[in-house]
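Retro notes - structure team

What went well: the batch runner handled both jobs without manual restarts.
What didn't: labels got mixed up in the shared folder, which is why I'm recording both outputs here explicitly, each with its sequence directly above its tokens.

Job 1
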Amino acid sequence: MPDRRYDMLPEVLSGNLCSLHSNVDRYAVSVMWKLSPNYEVEKVWYRRTVIRSAYKLTYEIAQDLFDGQDPSRIIPGIPELKDSSLSQQDIQQRLSELTLAIRQLVDISRILREKRNSEGALELEGVEIRVQMGEKNNIEDLI
């Protein structure tokens, strides 16, 4: 049901302690990869870390940045830029850096996925089930 959200954790966890709010330290277990210039995984290690997100982005805003959408449409969706006292030049600089970072991560992800698939990775495809609701919000049918 795409119009609803069901948290798997209590609100105190999902909306606060386990949520990546910008400029807030969070404890994490991080997987670190050392990649070669052609994106071969050379070393993997795990660490207990403290992470701090610089921006709180929705998937839609990240996609808009990647797609090169009009900044005037994007900025209102990024609280750290919308509510800041930064100059327009600084905001544009930060948007540029953020866009570059997102594009680099997408490129790395694409290359690693292609390598994994070329080496015979297992692809599991799920079946999407749609729920047809009746007048009184009762489930009438599964499509």
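Job 2
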Amino acid sequence: MISTMEHISTPKVENVRLLDRFNSRKQAVGTLYLTATHLIFVDPGGKKETWIQHMHISTVEKLPLTTSGSPLHLRCKNFLCVTFVLPRERDCHNVYTSLLQLACPGKY
């Protein structure tokens, strides 16, 4: 049996932007943590935390690379849609593959 921690190759990514789909000027910059059960975004400036349980994630999409970074779009089963922009494509790919395995453990 494979441990869930073995699926996590990048547990922490700094300088991640959380995009607000209603206000493009309001972007939070913080740290993204990937644990065995949750994806956590911490914005130290706005003193805000966003916790997403892996079992609530419906789809994970790695969007095309932009000049500002590598976007990762999550759609959750509770209708939450979140887009994170990670500064490095390699970190984005690692988080993407980890989330695919953690959100749908029977599939991958």
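One thing worth noting from job 2: The helical segments are 89-103.
We'll revisit the folder naming next retro.
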